[in-house]
Design brief:
Helix content: 40-55%
Strand order of the largest sheet: 1-2-3-4-5-6-7-8
CATH class: Alpha Beta
CATH topology: TIM Barrel
Bound molecules: 2-phosphoglycolic acid
Structural class: alpha/beta
Number of strands: 8
Number of domains: 1
Distance between the termini: 22 Å
CATH superfamily: Aldolase class I
Shape: globular
Oligomer: single chain
């Protein structure tokens, strides 16, 4: 597996539980057209709901957009009603999966340990991973942001060999910024990204830490993307609400492309 070039940005559209087959078809068709002139300078993925994965995969085929899923089971197979395995995702063309999203940590009571198991099975199956970490507002207020992120990332990467780390990118998503319209400031996000990079350095080594792409997520939109991407520590975005509108997502992709070209090699 190749390691990421950390200069190149990655923009992910996390659709969550939104859309219909028809609306997703229109959205994806527009995105494919918008992505075409940008594919040489930005990496991007759409994280579609399970029922639409194969259909969306057929629309994006050959476009360079990656097909992403929003969730995966920690189990390989068996009596786990309602769950979807990494093998199944791979089988229908999924290339990357979100693990540890705060909505899953909270609503499905996913523990740090379970998230670590999901990361391990996804990687060993051949999927890339978008690992989400981030603190609550209360944790930020009490000065625990870095400790919380460190705990989450250490548990999620426990037992993950250096050779697999090229298939992982991190999304720093402060919980208070998700879906609230209140993004972290570019400066605050950059501080958290630098701390996460230091965690990766401590868990592995400096060159891997430098090569690991760390994205920001939480109320990213077409109006704030450029200022977020002015921070070199921010190597892309995981976008929720604004990914459901092709024009907004395309604008964020363009901001990423411009930021990439202005960054030193
Ligand atoms: P948001 O969601 O952009 O709607 O805040 C981001 C996410 O949850 O990944």
């Amino acid at each position: 597996m190749t390691q990421h070039n950390s200069k190149r940005m990655f923009i992910g559209g996390n659709w969550k539980m939104n859309g219909t087959r028809e609306a997703s078809t229109v959205l994806t068709t527009e995105l494919v057209a918008a992505f075409e002139p940008l594919a040489a300078s930005v990496d991007a993925a759409v994280f579609a709901p399970f029922p639409y994965l194969q259909h969306i995969g057929s629309i994006i085929r050959g476009s360079g957009l990656l097909l992403g899923a929003q969730q995966v089971s920690a189990e390989a197979n068996g009596a786990f009603t309602g769950q979807v395995s990494a093998e199944m995702l791979l089988d229908v063309g999924v290339q990357i999966v979100i693990i540890g999203h705060s909505e899953c940590r909270k609503l499905l009571a996913e523990s740090d340990e379970l998230i670590g198991e999901k990361v391990a099975i996804a990687l060993s199956t051949g999927l890339s991973v978008m690992l989400c970490v981030g603190e609550t507002w209360q944790e930020r207020q009490s000065g625990q942001t870095e400790a919380v992120c460190r705990r989450q990332i250490s548990a999620a990467l426990k037992g993950i060999h250096l050779d697999h780390m090229g298939a992982i990118q991190i999304a720093y998503e402060p919980i208070w910024a998700i879906g609230t319209g209140r993004s972290a400031s570019p400066e605050d996000a950059a501080i958290s990204h630098a701390a996460l990079r230091k965690d990766i350095e401590d868990l592995y080594d400096p060159s891997l830490a430098a090569a690991t792409r760390i994205l920001y997520g939480g109320s990213v939109n077409s109006a704030n993307a450029t200022s977020l991407f002015s921070q070199p520590e921010i190597q892309g975005a995981l976008v929720g609400g604004a990914s459901l509108k092709a024009a907004d997502f395309a604008s964020i992709l363009r901001s990423a492309s411009q930021a990439t070209s202005s960054r030193p090699n």
